[in-house]
Amino acid sequence: MFPKNKERCIDGSMQGFTRKGDRMKACKKMTALLAALAMLTGTAELPVSAEEATGTLGDTMTWTVDGDTVHCTWESATADGVEISIQGDTCTIEKGVYPWEEYHAWLNAAANELTELLETNGYDPSAMGSEEKNAVLAELMPEVYAVQTAFTGVKHIAVSDTVTQLDVALGFLGLADAETVQLGNGLVSIGDSTFENTHCTQITLPDSLKTIGNHAFYDAGVKELTIPAGVEEIGDNALESDSTLEKVTILSRDVDLTDTGLGYVSVWLETDPNRNENLVIYGYAGSTAEQYAAENAIPFVALSEEWLCGDVDLDGRIDIQDAVLLAKASAGTVSLNEAAKKNADCNGDGEVDSADAAVLMEFLVHLVDTLPVQ
């Protein structure tokens, strides 16, 4: 619910936003809110009651605690707004379009509201340390404190199949610590900064996806990402990272990649963009991905044009990485796109499950010679 990435605003790493004045202003106000909240953390459990607890923060955000579930909405004057529910360590998103300008306005209103609360109760926020603010706000606003605790505990994000556009800065909204993301099969567009500053290490993009916005995965924790064949555009700095990103597989043959779409770090220095030396791009020979890799001196590996059963991660070879991915897929912890599902059906029964994972391991240790097993 509350942004936690204060460092992006005050440690000098905001250079990437110097051409975006509104983003800089928003981060300054984010710092103001963090000062008011003192970056609330804790172990308080959600209040469990037969009756609901409901409240507001700022002029557009409403929260409800119902037993062990937290519901939050951010109303928008120009878009669908945001509607989420948190249960345990999982956050489910039913709506996810919140313009940056409106987020910026809510942030300011929430900061003022919480600062006023402290002052009204005789406290001087500027003279209080983090622990003191934490304790006081937990006492004055126990339900809000519990809602905040729910956000800090989120490790998994699930986006509903009914969501076609995801355009909300999840990292700044309070979901920066999420580790895995399950995107719905109806998603068409990922907007600007959606996963920026998150710690997500595992994201599977659906085959329905068409566009990836500017800064969409900026400084996210993703090491590997497969771009589905239907993706038509990847925006500025979409996959810029701190060199965490090691492998991008682009199944689209004609994706529109901006000059700094991926493969760079700290591209705010336009005259001397730093390269992500760890990145390798996988794609089809003759594709725009290959052209981009050549123009930017990024290593490129051509994907096989033939069906390669067992190549679950679509990198043109069969190895232990495929077995690990298939095991996760059969356990339901990751999703595979259609191309990966086809390659994952190692026993040829038309399904992807633990039996395929077992067959693939047998292939890797040479107990079977061919895939799929006949």
Q: What is the rounded distance between the termini?
A: 52 Å
Rg result: 22 Å
Percent helix, as a range, is 25-40%
Mean pLDDT across the residues is: 82
Strand order of the largest sheet: 1-2-3-4-5-6-8-10
Number of strands: 19
Q: What's the SSE pattern? A: HHEEEEEHHHEEHEEEEEEEEEEEHEHHH
Give a short summary of the structure.
With 374 residues, the protein is an alpha/beta fold. The N and C termini lie far apart (52 Å). It is built from ten helices and 19 strands.
Describe this structure in words.
There is one protein chain. This protein is of the alpha/beta class and 374 residues long. It is 29% helix and 19% strand. It is built from 10 helices and 19 strands. It has an 8-stranded mixed sheet. The chain has a 5-stranded parallel sheet with strand order 7-9-11-13-15, covered by helices on one side. A 4-stranded parallel sheet has the order 12-14-18-19, covered by helices on one side. Mean pLDDT is 82; it is low at 1-51.
